[in-house]
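Teaching note: in complex prediction, the entire set of molecules is handled at once rather than each chain in isolation. The prompt given to students was simply: 'Predict the structure of this complex.' The entities are:
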Amino acid sequence: MEVKILSAKFDIKDAHMLEVAKQHGAYSQLDKLFSMEPVAVIEEVKNSGLRGRGGAGFPAGLKWSFLPKGLNKPVYLTVNSDESEPATFKDRYILVRDPHMMIEGIIICCYAIGCHDAYIYIRGEYTSQVKALQKAIDEAYAAGYLGEKVAGHDFKLDVTVHRGAGAYICGEETALLESIEGKKGQPRSKPPFPAVEGLYGCPTIINNVQTIASLPYIIENGAAAYKQYGTEKSPGTHLFGISGHVNKPGMYELPLGLPILDVIEKVAGGVLNGKKLKAIIPGGSSTPVQTPEDAKDLTLDYESMAAHKTMFGSGGIVVLDETVDIVKLVENLAQFYHHESCGQCTPCREGLGWILKIVKKILRGDGTSADIDLLVELCDNIEMKTVCVLSAACTMPVRSYLIKFRHEFEAYVKKGASAQANVKQG
Amino acid sequence: MSDRSKLIVTGKPFRFDQERDAEFERLVKRYPTRESMILPALWLTQEQEGWISAEAIAYIADRIGTFASQVFECATFYTMYNLHPMGRNHICICRTLSCWLRGKQEIVDYLKNELGLKPGEIGADGKFSLEEVECLGHCGTAPVVQVNGEFHESMDVDKLKSLLATLK
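The expected output is the structure of the full assembly:
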């Protein structure tokens, strides 16, 4: 099932080094690129159907075409390498094993959109990855692929690594921009969208690492070749991260559209130690959970995920076996989102804390059935009432656990009630 | 969340050493505004000193030409900036989803017992500090532990024992 488009060089020794990467085709598309008109590059990417790989799945070429024309302002590219959605661990393979593929992608994107200053925003925790990436960028400068004249062509491009410092929210694109501008990462109200008014008030494109890294293949082989993989509306391949209770967790490149249960069985080696499958988180911690029954006809593409009222997200699949305590899992997730709320909007700052408190109360055995209803009500009152979607990233999955595994919450309530009755009788 | 609103005054002046000074000057040319240097300057400070003092905040503000309050705001918002000295070996254990599913609690319990520290604490001799952190992006090789920035994947108690033995 696996394919090697983005991961073609991942297993080649020292492919992170420029000389080795070049032997395997890195930077070989630049002459072709500069012979094309920028608008033709955008058309090719549009035709490829490449969708943003950060989570939202917005068509990349279309996003680029939103840049206003004829403005007398610089255009910026920021590459989102914040990768902090729990269960997501794909982009760092690109940063460490094939950084030149991404740098070539940056050159392609910048040429297409007329950008001369690109920033890579990388999460602060990626210490060794930051170093590896910076080393690759230094090599690219030394070899003349970045700087005043990219590969000898009349095109200037600077690429700067900007390191975050432990804030999940900075994966949200406008929080990311605030962070580069030297502020705390609090998302901006939209509109205006970054394509119109982004970094330093200028038109800005924000793309995920994997989106950018897909570009050299598309330029080399054309949109049609890229569309051979995947489905009509979800073309191409994706780096899926499979974690949790499977025998072979890890990162796998797969075409979009494969049945999720087959992938868990055949690619990830099935449920760990032969246990029974309880549920699947299909695309990172913020995506609504799927029971084995739900997942029967679920395929790994944007349309199937939407039809199942969940999301493709970041391609981070988490497998839960029969031993998982769903209430404790919700506690774990609620704590994450509560901790990561930036504090700007009251429903999120306070509401996620309340979700956590009530779940803890239920776990202690002090909860009532009304508390479970209150959790659902809280989710409804928080979601979409904030500047960004961090709050929904918590409430959407939490609601799905409350609906699909309500009996587990009820069991804690009952157990608590009978324990208290015993205390009174005793 | 722990209280991240207090700064420590050391009574000693702070400035970048030569290497950080050069890196600051290289980077500042890359941004159209000097305020963009706040996060990079905080990182340079932490690389040099291990943590960020009140004097460092004042120095960065002065160097950039901005308000100390804006530097303070960033230093306190972003949780990776240490506002006090940490242990020589700062151990972070990922507590989130996939690491939780694959047994991070065993790792935490072992370290608590072995080091006599709770997450969030620094040992009296300054050798270790312990912290539970949110997702470190190594879910496929969970559970994961990070020591002074270095990742240690697919951890178990045996591996932890050998790792601790190498730390000075």
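Point out the following to students. The longest helix of chain B spans residues 38-49. Chain B touches chain A through 45 residues (CB under 8 Å).
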